[in-house]
């Protein structure tokens, strides 16, 4: 019996966590369960980033997605889902058509991934944060600054859009 | 059994993308559609990092993944603001009931 490959075991566990939670997002009929299942997907992807020697990205994934985006989505769910029909708050339709289309796309992707000769090689795992910092302040300085402007514009835009400009009559009582 | 390589990560990314696409196409709840978009963006980011680690080297794949995370955060903020405003107007966020522009 060959020695147990810890890397493979960790990858299998992370893949199971990621895809199982993604299945929950796709198939659960309760929007709150779907949102919580997204947490497992984000954590699994963060673990895979660690395995791919992208430690900074793993930390960013946890901080931004789990701490920011997921909380925002949960707020939106709580503010919009009606409590009385929460059990079927995430109903689905056209499952057959969607399943067929997804199967076609996956077959195409699998054909490309399996039959293309990628010049891939196994690299040793090494920390990437310092290299990433040099890249952001060197070659990628302009896209980095534009990214911060995009974030500022999105923040102002979200505040302006979500503002209570007109009070509907059902909001007064 | 072969060691964990590029194909394994591509498989996970492809299945994640398929599930995200399925979610976007089947959900009636607008927030559910946004969850599917997050799945698709994560699959793309995972592919970027996997290709960088196994094929190209360097740091460009991680840089693009950071931009994907930035855009996903902006998209979630704007999208949820729009969803809140739609709910305020229609008292519902079922995507197939927003048919004011039809006909």
Structure overview:
The complex is a heterodimer of chains A (173) and B (103). Chain A is mainly α and 173 residues long. Chain A folds into two domains: 1-91, NADH-ubiquinone/plastoquinone oxidoreductase chain 6, subunit NuoJ (Four Helix Bundle (Hemerythrin (Met), subunit A)), CATH 1.20.120; 129-173. Chain A is 70% helix and 0% strand. Chain A has helices at residues 6-27, 31-51, 55-80, 95-115, 129-137, 141-162. Helices cover 77% and strands 0% of the residues of chain B. Chain B has helices at residues 6-26, 30-56, 60-90. Chain B has one domain (6-93): Orthogonal Bundle (Helix Hairpins). With 103 residues, chain B is mostly helical. Classes of the chains: A mainly alpha (173), B mainly alpha (103). Chains A and B meet through helix 1, helix 2, helix 3, helix 4 and helix 5 of A and helix 1, helix 2 and helix 3 of B.
Gross morphology of chain A: extended
Number of domains of chain B: 1
Let me know the largest β-sheet of chain B: none
The radius of gyration over CA of chain B amounts to 17 Å
Overall mean pLDDT score of chain A?
84
Q: Any idea of the CATH topology of chain B?
A: Helix Hairpins
Structural class of chain A: mainly alpha
Strand content of chain B: under 5%
Please give the radius of gyration of chain A in angstroms: 21 Å
Largest interface: A-B, 87 and 72 residues
Between the first and last Cα atoms of chain A, what is the distance in angstroms? 71 Å
The overall strand count of chain B is 0
Instruction: State the CATH superfamily name of the largest domain in chain A.
Output: NADH-ubiquinone/plastoquinone oxidoreductase chain 6, subunit NuoJ
Helix-strand pattern of chain B: HHH
E-strand count of chain A: 0
> What percent of residues of chain B adopt helix (DSSP H or I)?
over 70%
**Unreliably modeled segments of chain B:** none
């Amino acid at each position: 019996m060959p020695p147990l490959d810890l890397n493979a075991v960790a990858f299998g566990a992370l893949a199971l966590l990621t895809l199982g939670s993604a299945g929950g997002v796709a198939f659960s009929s309760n929007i709150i369960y779907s949102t919580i299942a997204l947490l497992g997907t984000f954590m699994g992807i963060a673990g895979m980033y660690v395995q791919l020697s992208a430690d900074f990205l793993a930390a960013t994934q946890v901080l931004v997605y789990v701490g920011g985006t997921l909380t925002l989505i949960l707020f939106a769910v709580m503010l919009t889902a009606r409590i009385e029909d929460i059990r079927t708050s995430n109903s689905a339709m056209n499952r057959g058509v969607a399943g067929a289309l997804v199967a076609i796309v996956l077959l195409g992707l699998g054909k490309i991934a399996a039959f293309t000769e990628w010049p891939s090689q196994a690299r040793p795992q090494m920390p990437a944060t310092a290299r990433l910092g040099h890249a952001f302040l060197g070659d990628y300085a302009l896209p980095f600054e534009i990214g911060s402007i995009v974030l500022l514009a999105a923040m102002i835009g979200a505040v302006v859009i979500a503002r209570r400009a007109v009070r509907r009559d059902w909001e007064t009582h | 059994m072969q060691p964990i390589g590029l194909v394994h990560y591509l498989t996970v990314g492809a299945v994640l993308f398929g599930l995200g696409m399925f979610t976007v196409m089947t959900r009636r709840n607008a927030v559910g559609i946004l969850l599917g978009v997050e799945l698709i963006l994560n699959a793309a980011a995972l592919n970027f990092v996997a290709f960088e680690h196994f094929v190209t080297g360097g740091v460009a794949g991680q840089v693009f993944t950071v931009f994907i995370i930035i855009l996903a955060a902006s998209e979630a903020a704007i999208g949820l603001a729009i969803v809140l405003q739609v709910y305020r107007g229609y008292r519902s966020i079922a995507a197939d009931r927003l048919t004011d522009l039809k006909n």
